[in-house]
Structures are given as structure tokens and as C-alpha cells.
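FORM 12-B: Structure-to-Sequence Request
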């Protein structure tokens, strides 16, 4: 209230008097703040009102006070819970709270500012306010700061008293859909006893809710809906909303497929997604896509938004008019999972906007076995939505007409304002967490109510019959038709109804193919194109004053081109620029990504005086591709999930997400494990997402050294992704370009440098970029006579340069340094050819700066052993095994690094002992092949 009173203090007396005169004539004629102030003022003036005599407040301000209070607080006494227990009264809504008594209800009023038919008296007004805001629908919207949105909601709700006008045919359709949902679940329950399905029973009104969302969206011109949802009700949504064939669903229960017809490892049926075109009520076709989702429930939220954003970009739907995301949630996960506020807070930002999301919370009033009062500190599970100024429609799931009404309102609101909106579908869960769980162990009282409760479809059928909208034979016919559909589909079930392997690629993926044996790509690009990009990188608009250090950077890069010594930052920019000039798109995001955490990129320039932005890669040519560079909010999980989702819908954009430091990806590990590494195997969904993860030991402590390479390698199998550690700008250039120049897509995890960004030896020539290619392993070009080499040091990344300098300083001449640039897929052929070049090398050592239990050793050891020449031994040189990636003391870091160098470059005879000392008792090296 202090903010509302501030306007009074700033107004002059004459103006206040004029506003008060208008208020007495018509409270609705003045702004809401003034009306509330005057109503309170009048009440304070009348402490001695005589019983039975309406005072000035009742005459002038009573109506306004009632309307305002019920708009704001009516949801507190709404009849929302199908199982009962709602409050009938609230102190803030008692007549005494407005200075009124029962006798005042006969006072005449025109109902202003109520927007609908309000009767003639305060009593009539009170009745319609209760009908509108305290029936099966309770609405929270008065926290919205935008008066236009509030006024729109008031007009839409109050003009209809929050009830839909439905024909008998429409009501029968709603009933038919609910009976079909219940019948489907009961059929599965009988046919597949003891199998999990996460039944929709208790929330069957979700089906007509989704029907309504689709129909209203289609009427507004929407062409695509992308949906995300957890397990509960998923099979019913697949069957009744997405149109997945019933026999296919039954086949998944019966495992009606042969192993040779299955691609990858598959997933359980209640994780599966589906895409289909559906005809809406107005005849328009809407494409529906339900995203695949693991058991991590809400983690699909940003994935859906990323997918929708990509589709909108492809459709050139900047306003979000043609594509709408719809997210279904569980009540406990919506209030409990941190990804929810991350996604809500991110969605309105320019780089992530999709024109608003329709959220539907399937509120079972329980989380696994946890009651709401143990699961959250707020009244509603949706209270987090207040941070984004979103309206919330709480609705009783047992009143299907109220449900379809709020669904229509929610979609209309989203299309009108392009903002998020929430539906809290309050229902219950007939069974336990799954059908094999006994809920009476933990919620006996609740489940006694559920056992005695008549399903919503049955009570709605009785209501329609009582109101003459349906007769008993009509109900029997609906039930009979539904049963015939289920029985017929079950009889059609055949083994070949299951998947015959990966589906052909269509839509945005048309023209691409599944990965085969050939992973090569032609990543060359004309030298002239690179020079053009370099020239444009240094060009700024007339009158633009770059930062003095940026001016020097441009001068340095011009010198690099002249001397033919391209550094990391320029090589990366040339990779992006060359793709853009080919008409391809690039989307690069991360914390500090525009500048680069280590100030190496400077993709975004700012006028040193005005602060205006200039992005050179957006101004290479008129017909270039789209370049986006995004400084993200300070979260990893939602941002990475969004970018992953983007790649699933647009394979022709190079999408990169950069961690500020490599190990920050830990916070988004669910997306690495459950989506990036496994989605193709589980769901046959490709992604070309690139992760840029700064990695390398510079003495910055345990949290800024390791990108946890070992975790990524642990996930690698069956050609699911690529993990690389390029050591030159040319290698980076080609590994990035090949992401779009292959006929398939695979995720790419890059260990990227920090100190190497300005290392004098980390340079490439323009010809290496223009005419070269990516090399999965790199031989030692400094070895003139391979026959003199007695030991081979295999290494990767930054530590190659550390070893190189130490070898030169110590004058070691019998050791070759071989770089493994790609850990996975393992470069077996390339390394075998390199090792064959050194006929007298029998001491092979893997040298890494990470501890023995981290890094690449455990993932690659067996692969190296398979390549050992006859009589050769394999040893590990590393820091000792450790529970932490790196020491927090710089002096200790230097000491450890020196010890690794000493062991790596020691004489051949001491190699095995040195390796054992470095490795510890559980990582003994010394594998030997042959004699």
C-alpha cells in the first residue's frame, strides 16, 4: 500500500476534491487507486452508523470494494478440490470487512466496476461475484502490474460469470472424451495387470482441456504446438491428443517386436514422444509434437522452449503467432524442482522468447508420497509464477465445463498478450505413484476419500442427463463405441506394428541421414572467403568508437593475417564467419560469451562513449546466415536444456553453449546424461549441439581446472557423440565446420583452452584453415628421424605444449610427442599408423595433467593397449589419484606439474616404476604386448 498512497501525497487539494466528487457520483469513473483510497476514507468517517441504515460507504464505495476484494481474494474460498475440504468463508471477504451488514445487501447498485450482468443490489452483485470468482474456478491475477492485461481478464471472466456457453453437442463431446480416457486406462489395467502406466484416472478432464487449447490456438492461426509433460497421463495424451495408434501402445505393453527391428536401446513407454498432425474444430490442421522426456520430470521444460524457438525462427514467426509451447507439470515437481523458476525467469528474455507458454499443472495434491504441507511453503504449488506476472487459473478437475472454459481463456490470453499463463488443474491420483504402489501406506485418509469418490466422467454424465443434454441410451452408445475402439485395436495388434528401426527423417531434418561408417567431412573453404571475414571483423560503422583495447585487437588481427599466424580467437571467428557466408546460421550462448570469459572473442563490440553494440559477424554480407551471440542468465541447466532443444528442431544452425569454466556444466549434468549422450539411442533423436568447456590446469584451484573429461568419456558408446581437445586454431576451425558439413548430426564436446588462447605457439596458417581438415591424432612433426625414437608420449590438449617446452629445455631427443585430438570416437586407425612410424619405440606413455583417476586414462587405456607394438609397454604419467580435480595452492600446482614432467621425460629404463608411482595401487600401468 505505501506505493498506492504515494500518489495522494503528490496530488494537489483541488485535484483530490475533483476526484472525490466524481467518485461519489460513480466509483468506477476514477482510477482504481483513488477509488480504494476514498472507500477507506469513507469507512473511517462513519464509525457510528446506525443499524439498518446504509452509510455513504455502502452507497458509493461498497460495490467497488466488493468487486475489488473478490477479484483479488475470491480464489481463497473457491470450490476447487474434488475431494472437498474447501473453505466456505474468509475474514477478508466477510461483509464486516467492507463496513457492511446483511441489511446493506438490499442497497441499489449498478455493479460497477463489474463488467457483466450484476443485478440491481449489492446482494445481487455479491452473488455474481461468488459465482465468478468462488465457484469451481479461482483466479489469481491482481498481482499483475499491467492494467491492460488485468482489465482484459476481468472483461473475459465477468462477462460470462466464468462459465462457458456450450451447446448440447459440445457437452456430449466433452463427456465422450473423458469416458474414452477413463475407458482406456481401465482397459490397460485389466489387460496388463501389474504394469506401470502412470494412469490419468482422477484427471480425465485433462483431455478436453488439451482439446480446447488446440482448438482455440487453431482459431488464432497457430500451426504448431510443442508439448512437454511428465509420466502421469502420458499414454492417454499420446492416444487421445497426439493420435498415436492404440495398437502401437498395446504393442509396447506386450513387447511385440523383434530385437532386430529395434534401433538403439529404446525407452519405457511413458517416456516416449510422438508427432502428428491433427485437425482442429475449425478444420485447420495443427502439428503437434510431444517431446520425449526422461524420469527427471521438469527437465523437459527448457528443451520444449528451445525446440519451439527454433521452429519459430525457421517459420519466421518472430511474434510467436504460429507456434505455441505447452508445458504440463506435476504439482510437487512444479513447486520443488529448481529448473522451473530457472525456465520461467529465462523465458521472457530476448534470446529465449517464444511468445509465452501455456502451463498446465496436473495437481494430484501429492508428490510421490509427500503431502503438500511437507512439500512447499506456499498455499499453491503455482505461487512461483508470481515472479513473471502470470495469471493463474485454479480449476476443479471434476467440473469439465469449468476446465474447458479456463483452457479457452488461457490460450486466448497467451495469443493476445504473448505471455505465460498457468492452469492449475486440481484433481487426484486414483492409484499410487504407479499402479504397483499402495498409497494407503502413507495417505490412508486421502485414499479412503478417493475410493469412495465417483469419477468426474460419471458425475458429468449424470449432470447432462439431468439437464436434458443427453439421455441414457445416448450414454450407453458412447460407452459402447469406446469399448469397440479399444477391442478392435487390441485385435489388430501384430508384431510388425512396432518400430522397424529409425524412421526416415522429415521436416527440418529432410535431406539428412543417420550416421553410418563414414564420418568424414569436407571442411575446406576458399582463402578469399576467410580474408573477407577477417576484413569485416575489423570494420565498424561510421562514428563508432571502439574501446582502445579493441582497436589494438583489430590491429593485432590484421597483423596476424599479414604474418599468417592465426590465433585461437581469430580462428574461431573465421569458422563462424565462413559458415555464415555459406548461408548457414550460428547461435552461440553462455555466460560472458559475447566478450569471452578470458577476453579472447570480442564478438560483441560496444561504443566506448555511447555503449551501443556492434556485432561484426552480423554484418559480413547481405545474404549471410543468421548469427546470434547471447550472454545468458547466470544458470547452466535451463540454458543448456534450451540450446539442446533448439538443436532437435533445427539441424542447420550451429548451436554452441559455452561454460564459463568447464566444470560449470556439472550443474546441467541431467542434460548431458539423459538427453545429449543418450537421446539418439533411447528416442532416435539426433542433436548437433556443441559444448565449449574451458579445461586445463593453470593453478586456479579445483573448480576452475577440469571440465570433468572423464565423465563425458564414461558416457561414450556406440558412436553417440564426439569428445575432442583441439590444440590449434585450425583444428578448432575444422571441427566446428564439420558439425554442419556432415550428412548427420552428433553432439560435440570440446575441451577448450584458457592460457593457450594467447600462447605464442598456438597459431595456424591461413592455408591450414582454407585447405586443411580436422586430424583426430597429430604426429610429432619435429622428429626428423623416427628410428631414433625410443619412447612415445601420448598426450592431449594444453599439456602438449607444456611437454613440448620441457622437452626442448631438457634436450630430450628420443621422445616423440603424439597428440590425441579426439578421444571419442577413438582414432584407432590414425594412432596405429603413427605408432608404426616409430619401429624402435617400446616405451609408450600416456601423459595427462589430471589425476590418475580422472582425465582420459581409464577410458582410453584398453584402447591404447590394443594398439601396442610387439614388445611395447604402456604406462601412465599423471598426478596421483585424488578426490578433487586440482590443488587450491599455486605453489603446489607447480610442484605437481614439475613432478609429472620429470616422470614423463625420465630415461626409458625408469618408465614402468615411474608410472606405478604416479598411478597409485589401483591404477598400475605397465601393460605389455608380446615378448
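FORM 12-B RESPONSE
SEQUENCE OUT:
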Amino acid at each position: 500500500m505505501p506505493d498506492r498512497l504515494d500518489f495522494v501525497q503528490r496530488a494537489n487539494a483541488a485535484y483530490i476534491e475533483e476526484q472525490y466528487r466524481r467518485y461519489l457520483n460513480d466509483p468506477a469513473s476514477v482510477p482504481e487507486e483513488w477509488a480504494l483510497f476514498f472507500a477507506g476514507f469513507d469507512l473511517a468517517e462513519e464509525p457510528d452508523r446506525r443499524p439498518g441504515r446504509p452509510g455513504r460507504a455502502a452507497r458509493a464505495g461498497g460495490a467497488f470494494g466488493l468487486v475489488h476484494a473478490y477479484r483479488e481474494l475470491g480464489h481463497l474460498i473457491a470450490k476447487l478440490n474434488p475431494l472437498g475440504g474447501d473453505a466456505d468463508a474468509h475474514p477478508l471477504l466477510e461483509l464486516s470487512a467492507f463496513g457492511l451488514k446483511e441489511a446493506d445487501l438490499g442497497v441499489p447498485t449498478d455493479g460497477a466496476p463489474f463488467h457483466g450482468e450484476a443485478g440491481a443490489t449489492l446482494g445481487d452483485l455479491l452473488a455474481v461475484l461468488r459465482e465468478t470468482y468462488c465457484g469451481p474456478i479461482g483466479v489469481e491475477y491482481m498481482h499483475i502490474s499491467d492494467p491492460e492485461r488485468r482489465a482484459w481478464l476481468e472483461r473475459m471472466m465477468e462477462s460470462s460469470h466464468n462459465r462457458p456457453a456450450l451447446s448440447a453437442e459440445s457437452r456430449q463431446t466433452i463427456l465422450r472424451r473423458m469416458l474414452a480416457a477413463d475407458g482406456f486406462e481401465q482397459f490397460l489395467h485389466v489387460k496388463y495387470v501389474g504394469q506401470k502406466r502412470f494412469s490419468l484416472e482422477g484427471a480425465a478432464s485433462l483431455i478436453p482441456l488439451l482439446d480446447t487449447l488446440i482448438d482455440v490456438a487453431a482459431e488464432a492461426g497457430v500451426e504448431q504446438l510443442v508439448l512437454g509433460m511428465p509420466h502421469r497421463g502420458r499414454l492417454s495424451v499420446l492416444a487421445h491428443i497426439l493420435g498415436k495408434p492404440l495398437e502401437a501402445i498395446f504393442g509396447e505393453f506386450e513387447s511385440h517386436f523383434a530385437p532386430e527391428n529395434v534401433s538403439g536401446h529404446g525407452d519405457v513407454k511413458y517416456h516416449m514422444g510422438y508427432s502428428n498432425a491433427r485437425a482442429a474444430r475449425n478444420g485447420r490442421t495443427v502439428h503437434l509434437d510431444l517431446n520425449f522426456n526422461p524420469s527427471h520430470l521438469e527437465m523437459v521444460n527448457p528443451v520444449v522452449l528451445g525446440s519451439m524457438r527454433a521452429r519459430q525462427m525457421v517459420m519466421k514467426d518472430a511474434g510467436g503467432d504460429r507456434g505455441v509451447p505447452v508445458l504440463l507439470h506435476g504439482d510437487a515437481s512444479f513447486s520443488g524442482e529448481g529448473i522451473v523458476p530457472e525456465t520461467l525467469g529465462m523465458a521472457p528474455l530476448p534470446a529465449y522468447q517464444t511468445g509465452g507458454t501455456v502451463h498446465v499443472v496436473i495437481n494430484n495434491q501429492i508428490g510421490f508420497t509427500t503431502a503438500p504441507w511437507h512439500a512447499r511453503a506456499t498455499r499453491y504449488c503455482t505461487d512461483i509464477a508470481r515472479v513473471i506476472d502470470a495469471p493463474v487459473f485454479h480449476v476443479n478437475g471434476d467440473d469439465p465445463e469449468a476446465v474447458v472454459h479456463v483452457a479457452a481463456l488461457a490460450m486466448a490470453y497467451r495469443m493476445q498478450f504473448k505471455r505465460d499463463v498457468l492452469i492449475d488443474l486440481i484433481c487426484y491420483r486414483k492409484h499410487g505413484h504407479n499402479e504397483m504402489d499402495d498409497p494407503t501406506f502413507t495417505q490412508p485418509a486421502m485414499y479412503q476419500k478417493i475410493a469412495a469418490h465417483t469419477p468426474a466422467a460419471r458425475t458429468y454424465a449424470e449432470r447432462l442427463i439431468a439437464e436434458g443434454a443427453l439421455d441414457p441410451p445416448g450414454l450407453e452408445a458412447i460407452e459402447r463405441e469406446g469399448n469397440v475402439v479399444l477391442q478392435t485395436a487390441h485385435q489388430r495388434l501384430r508384431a510388425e506394428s512396432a518400430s522397424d528401426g529409425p524412421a526416415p527423417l522429415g521436416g527440418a531434418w529432410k535431406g539428412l541421414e543417420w550416421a553410418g561408417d563414414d564420418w568424414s567431412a569436407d571442411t575446406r573453404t576458399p582463402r578469399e572467403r576467410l580474408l573477407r571475414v577477417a576484413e569485416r571483423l575489423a570494420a565498424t560503422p561510421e562514428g563508432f568508437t571502439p574501446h582502445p583495447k579493441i582497436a589494438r585487437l583489430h590491429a593485432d588481427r590484421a597483423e596476424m593475417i599479414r604474418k599468417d599466424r592465426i590465433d585461437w580467437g581469430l580462428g574461431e571467428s573465421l569458422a563462424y564467419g565462413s559458415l555464415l557466408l555459406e548461408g548457414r546460421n550460428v547461435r552461440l550462448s553462455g555466460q560472458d560469451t559475447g566478450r569471452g570469459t578470458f577476453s579472447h572473442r570480442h564478438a560483441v563490440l560496444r561504443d566506448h562513449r555511447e555503449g551501443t553494440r556492434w556485432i561484426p559477424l552480423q554484418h559480413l554480407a547481405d545474404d549471410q546466415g543468421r548469427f546470434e551471440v547471447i550472454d545468458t542468465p547466470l544458470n547452466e541447466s535451463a540454458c543448456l536444456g534450451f540450446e539442446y532443444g533448439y538443436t532437435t528442431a533445427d539441424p542447420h544452425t550451429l548451436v554452441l553453449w559455452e561454460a564459463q569454466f568447464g566444470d560449470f556444466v556439472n550443474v546441467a549434468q541431467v542434460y548431458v546424461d539423459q538427453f545429449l549422450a543418450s537421446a539418439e539411442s533411447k528416442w532416435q533423436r539426433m542433436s548437433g549441439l556443441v559444448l565449449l568447456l574451458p579445461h586445463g590446469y593453470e593453478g586456479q584451484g579445483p573448480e576452475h581446472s577440469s571440465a570433468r573429461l572423464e565423465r563425458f568419456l564414461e558416457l561414450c558408446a556406440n558412436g553417440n557423440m564426439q569428445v575432442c581437445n583441439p590444440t590449434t586454431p585450425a583444428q578448432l576451425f575444422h571441427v566446428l565446420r564439420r558439425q554442419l558439413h556432415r550428412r548427420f548430426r552428433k553432439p560435440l564436446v570440446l575441451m577448450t583452452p584458457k592460457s593457450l588462447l594467447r600462447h605464442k605457439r598456438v597459431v595456424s596458417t591461413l592455408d591450414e584453415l582454407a585447405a586443411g581438415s580436422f586430424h583426430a591424432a597429430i604426429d610429432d612433426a619435429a622428429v626428423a628421424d623416427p628410428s631414433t625414437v625410443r619412447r612415445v608420449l601420448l598426450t592431449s590438449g594444453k599439456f602438449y605444449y607444456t611437454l613440448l617446452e620441457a622437452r626442448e629445455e631438457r634436450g630430450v631427443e628420443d621422445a616423440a610427442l603424439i597428440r590425441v585430438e579426439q578421444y571419442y570416437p577413438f582414432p584407432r586407425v590414425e594412432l596405429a599408423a603413427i605408432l608404426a612410424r616409430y619401429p624402435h619405440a617400446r616405451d609408450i606413455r600416456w601423459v595427462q595433467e589430471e589425476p590418475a583417476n580422472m582425465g582420459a586414462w581409464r577410458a582410453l587405456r584398453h584402447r591404447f593397449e590394443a594398439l601396442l607394438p610387439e614388445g611395447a609397454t604402456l604406462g601412465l604419467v599423471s598426478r596421483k589419484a585424488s578426490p578433487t580435480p586440482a590443488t587450491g595452492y599455486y605453489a603446489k600446482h607447480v610442484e605437481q606439474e614439475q613432478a609429472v614432467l620429470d616422470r614423463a621425460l625420465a630415461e626409458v629404463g625408469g618408465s614402468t616404476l615411474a608410472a606405478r608411482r604416479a598411478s597409485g595401487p589401483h591404477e598400475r600401468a605397465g601393460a605389455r604386448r608380446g615378448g
